[in-house]
Specification:
- The structure is a homotrimer.
- Chain A is of the alpha+beta class.
- Chain A is built from seven helices and 22 strands.
- Chain A has helices at about 25-30, 35-40, 195-205, 205-215, 325-330, 330-335, 355-370, and strands spanning about 45-50, 60, 65-70, 75-80, 95, 100, 110, 115-120, 135, 140, 145-150, 160, 170-180, 230-235, 240-245, 255-260, 265, 275-280, 280-290, 290-300, 390, 395.
- In chain A, the strands form five sheets. In chain A, strands 13, 14, 15, 16, 17, 18, 19, 20 and 22 form a nine-stranded antiparallel sheet that branches.
- In chain A, a hairpin with a 4-residue loop joins strand 5 and strand 6.
- The radius of gyration of chain A is 23 Å and the shape is globular.
- The two termini of chain A are about 25 Å apart.
- Mean pLDDT of chain A is about 90; it is low at about 1-10, about 215-220 and about 400-405.
- Chains in contact: A-B, A-C, B-C.
Chain lengths: ~400, ~400, ~400
């Protein structure tokens, strides 16, 4: 794989004269026109929860682009370039109307797809307004989430469905949340200050669960995780799967199947309730820019289920811990943020336990290449009949053979 | 006019693949040696109020240059390069003396024109001090304001006079203030965090008054402004004028004449008291640097007049408003700051209502060219007999024909 | 001397058109591979007090390099590159163990010289761990201070001894402190926000003592300093010395000898107690990076001596003073910080009273050249028998002839 060349250590391993370090830009730069940015843009991305899209314009930053998000008085959501096409004032100060949004400066009004409806001070309300357009992106709502497509319009795919979120029982519902990170469920951190890749590397990294959250630190998950698993990784057409099998003390054989889908979708089974079940949640790691990301998660829950429990370490939320407490009980955040805002991949020495990361990165780079050469990356569908994704992740007991396509 | 080429929209107007945006650097970069900076430097600029020039050295930043401002014990003002010519310590920590200022480090003393008076630790107080000079700029006081000339010394013009500030009656006085912006009269914002051009564009932009301050938002000015004016713009030798005529409900014809003088001087008639009168104030938009400016205004008032009223929106000063309140009642600041620290002029789509801005920018660029080719820009005078400017701005009723030269 | 060319003043000394200013990069840039950085790296540098090296990992920044400092459970100190060689997580969140430190992410354990002891998740604890090495620097403790050597390993010298710190009497002890600056003894400023050179220039600059601390400001030192000294500077093999002789009012002749050793070591006699004595302290000016430094000082004191007195100006510590109070009573900090984060040496006009600075800088540049050409700079010893430095600094009365080598 075309990873940056490994750092060559001096014979005595000293720090003097070590070469300059650098990130893998191909996987971490996400702005318009960048390799990874163009891959991300080929997929619908979840940019906000539906409940966050209101009649009050909101600033959002996605894949390095600052945009305005709002819902017109008819209920239609819009995602627009913020600088009014007239003279550049941000639509953040615009007034939301029945059919769109009007800029505060001279009142130019646009609908949710950027069509100019009115230029109040111009003769006849603007004789050329039909050819005037505020740059915009298409959006669609599903599962309580607002998805946006920021790629080339002629290659816009259908918005996918996931089997685990369909056919809900009468006692079930879908919930969604945004922000937060890792296993701490601490949503105080809406925007996480490091590269999306450092979270994506972690998603499949099951060994660190053993060290970081169990043996190493205080026990943060369920006791079953104390046992070292037998791990198997394999690629699928759309991503990477891993199976972790454990023989438990009570004789049961417990298999945990997790999956990652190109480019930034994870489906990890429940960590706290490991009864036999398919996974109940899907999480997107959404790059905000090169050194920030956020996350959007959809859950399938019983209507009666209480809100998700925030993890506490010695009674404190992560956001309440001091630096010293974090040194004493480091978690996902410390491990990942500790790599820097964008890690220096040139200094990595990947080991046998990093096979999942190697697989994931290899697949990302291959798909980046496909896109660069004009093709369609895996997982992108144009036919509505192909829009349903069958998820394989879950907690399974006794025997479970892996059968399906993701 | 050599504006940056207009942004070419995609056929469907989508935001994908839009070209990079950029400012008009020619009109916004103001440092030494830049086109606009060199134009600005050909004129005396108001750098502070006389009352702000004291025996305590003050830091000021003007046209991208950090300087020290003080008044020696004899009352003479000085504007010096701050880094002592000896070894660079800032004269901000200097001690003001009878005849100048002495650096705190080794006591080198300079007068208000940078002549070195003493080098205490050197033999004979400094044998070469006569050729030693702390870089300096000439200053002059008038109308309660300290003006500085930061251009080539051999082209220093006379400091101008304005007819509306001369021949005061016994019951009249001149007042001055610095800082603040637009129509809110909120002086909490001494240095405004965006380019001078975004304020300069606004000065003549009368349509936004109708939208931003009246129909669009809550009513912020006098009711007469609800009526859409008949507007006429025309250039004069030294700038741009505009005439806004309104037929009022009571039958009167009301003409409002405003003027802008190259490069950054505005003379806008009273907004709150529109009785027949010439304009009573002149305002300079002083670039602090490329993305900041401040303003200095001189007013002619009755001695008995109370202090100027700060505008309140729903009882609050602008500086007390929350983000949400500013979204609900946006004013000049939101409209101008909302264009960014330096607007991206390459994305503008100027319309028929922007004729004034087009005229102003065209004139600025023409004068920038004159200066670059070694000539003298308009409005610069070297003969004291030509130092008086006759201002034409004002609120006028019935008939008023425009007769004079500015 | 190859100082940047002097700023050429315009005939009238005006500030218009002055050339751009710049630092002397050769003496101020201290990162790996820079001329000054490579000179600094040839010497053991004091990076922390021994008391600051604990079982809790600490972040330190030295010569532009971010490092981790800790003491393993056996009491051995370690200075490591912070990014774990596995996947880059900072060892700041590592767990200190009996024999080293273990990364929080996957538990890789390293000893204080970076040898990899264990890779917990790898088969057999890591089959290749013997060739794995976390980049490290050698450290040694002496005089209550932790010294580090960050230069080429094959040129590592012996750690020096100083005669004034040897052979302590039973009633004597060595104390050490870090941070702080100049004569104010205010340790609130651990890391000082300007270039090390601005402090180094000050160390020998005795004239400013007369102006800045005495005549100019309020009296900050002892009355004897009011008298202008007869100063003599001379180079020694390892640095620069200066002798300041004063004839006191009571007839005594008082000589004060101070020395500076290449590249950043100062030995200044006691300022407050000027009884006859060799100097009792040595201070290192340690560059943190190009625009920050800190200091480490070792003192020889009586065990019964009270803690050092913090200087108060009108009853306030420096850190408690307002901007205006600092303008009224400027000290070393104002004079040095007032030159900027890195001074613009191209604008200097050095005078006869700056001979010491000229000597010091000339010697630094000469030693920089020696190192660049592969030689050993002065003061570096490889033979333990040559490790003792005889210091000449002190306060002396009647006659004192300068006899020794530093």
């Amino acid at each position: 794989m075309s990873n940056p060349p490994q750092h060559k250590l001096r014979a005595d391993g000293g720090a003097y004269g070590r070469p300059p370090a650098h990130p893998d830009y191909e996987l971490t730069h996400v702005g318009p026109g960048t390799p990874c940015g163009e891959l991300m843009r080929r997929y619908w991305q979840p940019v906000a929860l539906s409940s966050e899209v209101t009649h009050r314009p909101a600033n959002v930053r996605i894949l390095g682009e600052d945009l305005i998000l709002f819902r017109d008085k008819k209920g239609r959501p819009g995602l627009l370039y913020p600088r009014c096409m007239h003279r550049g004032t941000t639509l953040f100060y615009g007034k939301v109307t029945e059919q769109g949004i009007a800029c505060c400066y001279h009142g130019w009004e646009f609908d949710v797809e950027g069509r100019c409806l009115l230029q109040p001070c111009e003769p006849s309300g603007g004789r050329n307004r039909e050819v005037a357009r505020q740059p915009w992106y298409p959006v669609e709502e599903r599962y309580g989430v607002l998805f946006a497509y920021m790629g080339p319009p002629e290659k816009k795919p259908v918005l996918l469905r996931y089997d685990i979120f369909e056919d809900l029982g009468s006692a079930e519902e879908l919930r969604s949340d945004s922000g937060g990170f890792g296993a701490t469920l601490d949503e105080s951190l809406k925007i996480v200050p490091y590269s999306w890749l450092q979270m994506n590397d972690n998603a499949m990294d099951r060994f660190h669960v053993h060290v970081l959250h169990s043996t190493f630190s205080i026990v943060q998950f369920v006791p079953e995780f104390e046992v070292m698993p037998m791990v198997d990784f394999f690629t699928t057409p759309n991503g990477v799967c891993y199976s972790a099998k454990r023989k438990l003390e009570d004789g049961r054989e417990y298999e945990r199947l997790s999956s990652w889908l190109v480019p930034n979708v994870t489906c990890i089974p429940n960590i706290f309730d490991i009864a036999e079940s398919k996974a109940i949640r899907i999480r997107w790691i959404l790059p905000v820019d090169d050194s920030h990301f956020t996350m959007v998660t959809v859950y399938r829950m019983a209507k009666s289920a209480p809100p998700l429990v925030k993890l506490r370490i010695k009674g404190k939320l992560w956001s309440e811990m001091t630096d010293e407490e974090r040194q004493d009980a480091p978690g996902d955040y410390e491990a990942q943020a500790g790599q820097g805002p964008i890690s220096f991949h040139s200094e990595e020495h990947l080991a046998s336990t990093d096979r999942d990361i190697i697989m994931q990165r290899r697949m990302l780079k291959a798909q980046i290449k496909v896109v660069a050469q004009g093709g369609d990356p895996v997982g992108v569908k144009f036919d509505p009949d192909e829009a349903l994704v069958t998820v394989s992740s879950g907690n399974f007991y006794k025997t479970h053979s892996f059968v399906n396509q993701t």
